[in-house]
Amino acid sequence: MYKLLKTAFSISLTALVVINCCEAQTQKPLFQNKQFAVFADSVVQGIYTAKIESATGLTSDYQSPANLFKSNKIDFKFSINGKDNEMPSGTDNHFVCEPQNGVCATPVIKWGQQLKAEPAAKDNTYLLPGTRLKISVDMSEVFDAFSRQGFYTTFNGNKIYKEDFKGVYVAGSTSPLTWDFDNLVNHPDLKLKDEGNHIFSTTVAVNETAKEKRTDSKWKLSKDIAA
152 and 159 in contact (C-beta within 8 Å)? Predict the structure, then answer.
C-alpha cells in the first residue's frame, strides 16, 4: 500500500511539474521582434491582441492606425453624368480640410475653375477620425448654356445636352471619394444635390473609422473542413 501511494504521489507531482512548465512556456513568446510577439495562443502588437479562443475560433481587438495619419489635403474634381469632363486630366481642385466642430467646408467653387490649396497650409497635419466634408459647386455657367443654346460644351469640345443632364458628382483622392469615374453613378453619396440657384452640394465622412476598419473582431469556422 505504501509503495502504491508513493507511486501515485510521484505521478501526481510529475504531472503538476509538467503542467506548470507548459503554463510557464505559454507566457514566453515563441517569436518576438520590435513590432509584435507570437505566443502559443495569441499574437500581441502593442495594445492589440489576436487570441485563439478554440480550435475553430479567433478574436481580435486590432484597429488600424491608418485613420490617425490621413492627410488633410484633399484632391477632387466635379463630374457631369459620372464622366471626367470638368477640367483637363491632371488639373484638380485642392483643398486643405481644417474642421471646426468636426466639419469643414469648401468654398462654393465655380464649375471648371480650379480651386488651389492655401499656400500657408501646414505640413504633417491629419484628418481627425469622424471628420465630415461639405463640397459645393456653382453650376450656373452650365445651366446658363442649357437655357441659351440647349447644350453645354465641355473643355474638350464634347456637348452635353440639357435633356441628357443626369446630375453632378464629385471624384477624388480621399475615401469615400474615388477617381473611378465610370462607377461614380453607383455612389449616391457622391452625387451633389441642388440647393437652389444651381449651387450643388454634398457632405461626406472623409475619415470614418468604422468604415475604414479592415479586420473582423471575431472569426468562427463556418464550413466542414474534415476532408
Answer: yes
Highest mean pLDDT among 12-26, 161-175, 199-213: 161-175
**Is residue 30 within 8 Å of residue 39, measured between CB atoms?**
yes
Whole-structure pTM value: 0.64
Tell whether the torsion through CA atoms of 169, 173, 174 and 176 is positive or negative: positive
- Candidate from 5-9, 64-68, 147-151 with smallest mean pLDDT: 5-9
The span from the CA of 210 to the CA of 14, in Å, is: 51
**At residue 182, what is the residue type?**
D
Amino acid letter, residue 103: V
The 8-class DSSP code of residue 66 comes to G
pLDDT confidence of residue 25: 47
Query: Which residues make beta-bridge pairs with 97?
Result: none
More confident residue, 68 or 115: 115
Burial status of residue 207 (CB atoms within 10 A of its CB: 0-12, 13-18, 19 or more) = buried
pLDDT at 76 over 60: yes
DSSP 8-state symbol, 29: -
Separation between Cα atoms, residue 208 and residue 205, nearest integer Å: 6
One-letter amino acid of 159: K
d(CA 137, CA 155): 17
Average pLDDT over residues 6-34: 56
DSSP state of 173: S
Which single residue is written with the C-alpha cell 485642392? 94
- 158 grid coordinates: 464634347
DSSP letters for 120-157: TPPSS-BPPTT-EEEEEEE-HHHHHHHHHHSEEE-TTS
